[in-house]
Amino acid sequence: MTFPFLPVTEIPGFIEQSNLQGQRTAVRLFRQRIRELLQNQ
């Protein structure tokens, strides 16, 4: 999948969250962020 509307600068933050909080939490937060971005388009 690609997310052209997702700023590349946000990706390292999701990777760091995955390392610190676990993959499940990071995926949940990533999905939440994608929903926010889609609603604001």
From TrEMBL:
It comes from the Bacteria. This is Uncharacterized protein. It comes from Coleofasciculus chthonoplastes PCC 7420.
